[in-house]
Amino acid sequence: MSTEFALIGHQESWDAASDVVSALRGPDHQPIPKDEIREILPWIPPRVVCHVDVHSKAGYSSRGSYIDSFIPPDRLSSNYVRENLIRVHKAAECAIRAGAKVVSLGGFSSILLEGSLDKLPDRDGTAFTTGNSLTVAFVVEGIVKMCAQQGRELARSVMLIVGATGDVGSGCARCLAPMVGRVLLHARNVGRLDTLKNELESSYSQVEVVLDGERFPADVDIVICAASVASPSLLLKGISQDAIVCDAGYPKNLLPSLSMHRKTMFHGGLGQVTGGMTFAPDLSGVLNRHPFPDVAHGCLLEGMVLALEGRYEEYSKGRGLITVKKVEEIHAMAMRHGICLAPFYNSGGAIESVEMSASEGCAG
Length: 364
Ligand SMILES: NC(=O)c1ccc[n+]([C@@H]2O[C@H](COP(=O)([O-])OP(=O)(O)OC[C@H]3O[C@@H](n4cnc5c(N)ncnc54)[C@H](OP(=O)(O)O)[C@@H]3O)[C@@H](O)[C@H]2O)c1
Description:
The chain is built from 12 helices and 17 strands. The chain is globular. By secondary structure, the chain is of the alpha/beta class. It folds into 2 domains: 5-133 and 270-341, no CATH class; 136-269, Rossmann fold. A 6-stranded mixed beta sheet has the order 5-4-1-3-2-13, sandwiched between helices. It has helices at 14-25, 34-40, 81-97, 108-113, 132-149, 167-176, 190-200, 256-259, 284-287, 298-309, 324-336, 354-361; strands at 5-9, 47-55, 61-68, 102-105, 127-129, 158-162, 182-186, 206-209, 222-225, 244-247, 265-267, 270-273, 277-280, 295-297, 339-341, 345-346, 349-350. Strand 7 (182-186), helix 7 and strand 8 form a beta-alpha-beta unit.
């Protein structure tokens, strides 16, 4: 089977980065000590780490490659933009060389490019997608499902989006604003917040800009965290313990201690391939660090869905251009192949049983 898709990723922790390097070296070599990994990683060039086969519930399969750009987990801040952009460029070259027809730009890869696919190498027959439409679809579905489980009425809820003007945040705002009572938008750039507020007001919901990130209004019922922070750092001061919180960040926006004991706080934007995924060599336990099998980020899954559909196109591109129509379309395509909302979990582990969410997730 030829390579149809490629997934460009990077690890969010040193443990994960260390596991990938050990897996690449093979079982015959001693693992490299953690402190040495920190020195070595910046020198490892982007490369194909393993092949991935994704199996659709509709009976199809597609083969792809996982390419790690080896961005060091502590170098995601703006200080390293130049060297990280070179890494993303080289990872894209790997995908083109591998013959991928569609490539997902996972995590910070698309953030570094600011959605501009023109910054990628010349390509012939390889389409790149940020994967953010499917990410938004899973965030939205997660919020709707968690509200239903908790008996909350969406239409009367106050929803705060942190990182609201970003690609993921603004896509979530467009999808959810018509469903909730009031929307609060938070980010740092006031001009972009005002532009989004003006756009959303046409969807009949009450929209407000919240500039103070140190203390949020206490009447917030739902929070979506979609800020591109380089490490977990947001505290959500002022937000009630009962609020439903979806942390869609990669790396996570929230400190692990915040979500540990809260059953209404979940990691969002994730999907589960119910037909299964196989990795060669078998890096499933290394690349899937979620507490459920066959779970991946929406951005990576979007490339797989497009490959299964034979739609080798730049499905999600630019920044702040995600529409409700595209989100609904990619969600329907994903569901057709049994790629569904992942079961809920947070830093404390699973929030509900695997059986329950696996059967519920693809039912609707
Ligand atoms: N779960 C998944 O499958 C998945 C998929 C794709 C992306 N992601 C993650 O989702 C997050 C957002 O991605 P994106 O593509 O939407 O990024 P983006 O387009 O760069 O947007 C980032 C947003 O965060 C805001 N922001 C940055 N730092 C902030 C801070 N300290 N406080 C408040 N707001 C801040 C930005 O606005 P200002 O600069 O004006 O503050 C902007 O609104 C990233 O962590 C990304 O890795 C997750």
